[in-house]
Write a structure and sequence with these properties.
By secondary structure, the protein is α+β, with helices and mostly antiparallel strands. It has a single domain (about 5-40), classed as Rubrerythrin, domain 2 (Single Sheet). It has one helix and three strands; from the N terminus they run ββαβ. It has a three-stranded antiparallel beta sheet with strand order 2-1-3, with no helix packed on it. The longest helix is centred in the middle third of the chain and has 6 residues, at about 20-25.
Length: about 55
């Protein structure tokens, strides 16, 4: 599942959320620390895991 990184504009804390794409499209995210709805999504690193054998 993808990991999304957010930043709270109220308490100035960053947090990560792991949700499926379907959940991400439906969900409104809130800060787990102060419960503010004033959050913005940040760019996060992307990791791909493959099963390629040498």
């Amino acid at each position: 599942m993808p990991v999304y990184e957010f930043f709270c504009k109220e308490c100035k804390k960053a947090f990560k959320v792991t949700v499926s794409l379907a959940e991400y499209e439906k969900k409104k995210f809130i800060c787990p620390k102060c419960h503010s709805k004033k959050v913005e999504q940040r760019m996060a690193a992307f990791f791909a895991v493959t099963a390629k054998k040498s």
